[in-house]
Amino acid sequence: MSADTPTILATSGGLTRGRRTLLGFGPLLHYAIELSGVSGRPPKVCYVGTATGDQDWRAMQFTEAGWAAGVDVALLKLFTMPNVDDLAGLVLDQDVVWVEGGSVANLLALWRLHGLDEIFRQAWTAGVVLAGVSAGSICWHTGGTTDSFGPDLRPVTNGLGFLPFANGVHYDAETQRRPKFHQFVAEGILPGGYATDNGAGLLYRGTELAEALAEVPGQAAYQVSLVDGEVREERLDTRLLPGA
Question: Distance between CA atoms of 164 and 41, rounded to whole angstroms?
């Protein structure tokens, strides 16, 4: 099974503390799996940890969380070399790709070096659900705010661009996130776009926003646009997912 239209779930959440494991799959990640339409077998989720340097301990935590959730986890690693001969075959065999947070600037550079930008586009159009948190959210957009270059947030403008919007993450949790996102939109460095509080996500069908979602009560997503030279922010109707 695969999603019936190209689908991206871009989040500032998705993982939680497990009952018997350090990590657990939260409602947003479970929803990404639901979007794939898989039934009759364990879902296949590919964990991509490029943004944190493919740390083995983090990959193992995610894998254990997947086992607890009844999910078959595959790992896509680029350090110190790709862990499989056929990266495209690995990605296209999945129901969901989940991209970890970290350095979105480094992630984008390495993905392009290894041809993953085109592989992920192929997977997206084939119905593999693309999802992730933080850097794993910004990457699908044209860009966003990032601490990839240092503690003072800067814009990243060379996202994969599957979605023609800017993306703001951790909108309520880090003091620079909202004002810097507004600043870069006002200056024309970033286009208008969408932002998520911690625990919220954005569902895109094709290149259009379909729904805003939350796995934490009270958290929300926002549309940020430039109208007549003024930045405007609108809190979106945000559906609380089951299990939140």
Answer: 34
The per-residue pLDDT for range 197-236, each reduced to its tens digit, is 999 999 999 999 999 999 999 999 999 999 999 999 999 9
| Annotation says 12 is catalytic | no
Q: Which of 30, 141, 170, 182 is catalytic?
A: 170
**CATH H superfamily, domain 7-240:** Class I glutamine amidotransferase (GATase) domain (3.40.50.880)
Neighbours of 117 (CB within 10 A): 17
Q: Residue 46: is its pLDDT beyond 60?
A: yes
For the chain, what is the mean pLDDT? Answer: 97
The residue annotated as part of the active site, out of 134, 137, 141, 182, is: 134
* Stretch 97-107: mean pLDDT: 98
Look at residue 163 and give its three-state secondary structure. Answer: coil
170 as an active site residue: the answer is yes
Helix (H, G, I), strand (E, B), or coil: what is residue 5? coil
When pLDDT is averaged across residues 125-154 and rounded to a whole number, the result is: 98
Which residues are CB-contacts of 45 (< 8 A; sequence separation ≥ 6)? 33, 66, 71, 72, 73, 74, 94, 95, 96, 97, 98
User: Which alpha helices (DSSP H) does 82-230 contain, by range?
Assistant: 87-92, 104-113, 116-126, 135-138, 177-186
Residue recorded with tokens 């909108």: 171
Q: Would you state the pLDDT for residue 1? A: 57
